[in-house]
Specification:
It is built from 7 helices and 2 strands. The protein has 218 residues and is mostly helical. The protein has a two-stranded antiparallel sheet with strand order 1-2. Helix 1 runs parallel beside helix 3, helix 4 runs antiparallel to helix 6 and helix 6 runs antiparallel to helix 7.
């Protein structure tokens, strides 16, 4: 998909969830499921709250392109413009599917296992981000943004490559666990893998920064 096509798709997915909610709003029950845990629905809310859920797409669709313009390192976005567009589009598609799952569960309760479906989606999002991350250049809004990575190009590139591998394999493990373990322990696995994905690149970013500083002093 070329740049213009991606931007058209971004506009579509920015407003699509709101249109989805509007199209079925009169058919929705007064209370709709808004949050789930391993046991099923954990919180119901008023159906108007779905507009807030759907509005996240419009919010991100506006803010993420804006971030690229106000970032102090905005010149770097030209170096990974295609990747950044894919990241925006990937997030918008992810949120659109979440809205769709919520509407299906609201209209046709218990027709699917929502916790497993969400875990699968999170796994696929992680895998997608993992593939994109090594292409991300220095910026303040996207990637593993440690102070050490932002201070040194070499550290940044190493951190993003490691972060990409962590997200990719972490997502793959979550995908396997979704079908291999019970729902009661799935939440713990997702939290543990997510913590690992965030912690390892952060620690290694600091280690690599210290190494680069020692090299510069030699």
């Amino acid at each position: 998909m070329k740049g213009k096509g991606k931007r058209i798709a971004m506009v579509i997915f920015s407003i699509l969830p709101l249109l989805m909610v509007l199209s079925v709003y009169s058919k929705l029950p007064e209370l709709v499921p808004l949050q789930w845990n391993a046991g099923g629905v954990s919180r119901y809310g008023k159906k108007w709250e779905l507009f807030m859920v759907a509005g996240l797409n419009l919010l991100f669709g506006i803010l993420m392109p804006l971030f690229a313009k106000i970032d102090p390192k905005r010149k770097n976005y030209k170096r990974f413009e295609k990747t950044y567009d894919w990241l925006i589009l990937g997030l918008l598609v992810f949120l659109t599917i979440l809205t769709g799952l919520t509407l299906v569960e609201s209209l046709y309760p218990n027709t699917m296992n929502i916790p497993k479906a969400v875990c699968c989606m999170v796994a696929m999002l992680f895998i997608f981000i993992g593939n994109m991350m090594p292409k991300v250049k220095q910026n303040f809004f996207t990637g593993v943004k440690t102070p050490w990575a932002l201070s040194n190009d070499v550290v940044w590139n190493k951190t993003q490559r490691l972060g990409g591998k962590a997200f990719f394999f972490g997502g793959f493990l979550i995908l396997i666990a979704t079908f291999a373990v019970g729902e009661n322990i799935m939440k713990g696995i997702v939290i543990a893998i997510t913590a690992f994905i965030c912690l390892v690149p952060t620690v290694m970013s600091y280690v690599w920064y210290q190494q680069e500083m020692r090299k510069s002093e030699e």
